[in-house]
Design brief:
heterodimer, A: 112 residues, mainly beta, 7-stranded mixed β-sheet, B: 114 residues, 6-stranded mixed β-sheet, 5-stranded antiparallel β-sheet
């Protein structure tokens, strides 16, 4: 199965600032996925990122708050913009090469 | 509504004991069901994946079962080890025309004590 490298693994940020999370897949994949996992809860899909087109956002998530880039078939970034304490969560990327969903190790974000 | 419900919410067992985690789903149309293990501060790691026609799938000390008629699955852990302490997440894949969509359970937090 694919290996996904995600960074940073954790960060503490001031409110009002932005953080960009990077994910690198060791193989080419059509779609990459970004999830949020709030404390004690399961994963919620933020958006699906296809290479060469705009990301598709789930209900409750908007591009201005979570802009996504997908410059090639192995890389994607998620930016959490204008952060507030409510954005404190674990953010995970995922890809599905060959049908099996693999996840990055996650970014634990704390907004103070 | 497509939902995945897991029970129990949390569980504490002694090292060496067996345990069974439950997953009920109402996802339709069903594509497949996966169990993931998520260690604290890490991303989920796949344990098993089962399609509609599969009743059981094993991965070492982990055995998953699926009853597609009752829409229930279980994950049985044999001879538990301290390293089994983690969150176990049941994920059902919903078949959609443009690609499957994953529906996540809230997870069962397992703690194995010595």
């Amino acid at each position: 199965s694919a290996v996904i490298s995600q960074k940073p693994s954790r960060d503490i940020c001031q409110r009002g600032t932005s953080l960009t999370i990077q994910c690198q897949v060791d193989s080419q994949v059509t779609m990459m996925f970004w999830y949020r996992q709030q404390p004690g809860q399961s994963l919620t899909l933020i958006a699906t990122a296809n290479q060469g087109s705009e990301a598709t956002y789930e209900s409750g998530f908007v591009i201005d708050k979570f802009p996504i880039s997908r410059p090639n078939l192995t890389f994607s970034t998620l930016t959490v913009s204008n952060m507030s304490p409510e954005d404190s969560s674990i953010y995970l990327c995922s890809a599905s090469p060959g049908g099996g969903y693999t996840f990055g190790s996650g970014t634990r974000l704390t907004v103070v | 509504k497509n939902q995945v419900e897991q029970s129990p919410q949390s569980l504490i067992i002694l090292e060496g004991k067996n345990c069974t985690l439950q997953c009920n789903y109402t996802v339709s149309p069903f594509s497949n069901l996966r169990w993931y293990k998520q260690d604290t501060g890490r991303g989920p790691v796949s344990l098993t994946i089962m399609t509609f026609s599969e009743n059981t799938k094993s991965n070492g000390r982990y055995t998953a079962t699926l009853d597609a008629d009752t829409k229930q699955s279980s994950l049985h852990i044999t001879a538990s080890q301290l390293s089994d302490s983690a969150s176990y997440i049941c994920v059902v894949s919903l078949y959609m025309e443009y690609g499957n969509k994953l529906v996540f359970g809230a997870g069962t937090i397992l703690r194995v004590k010595s």
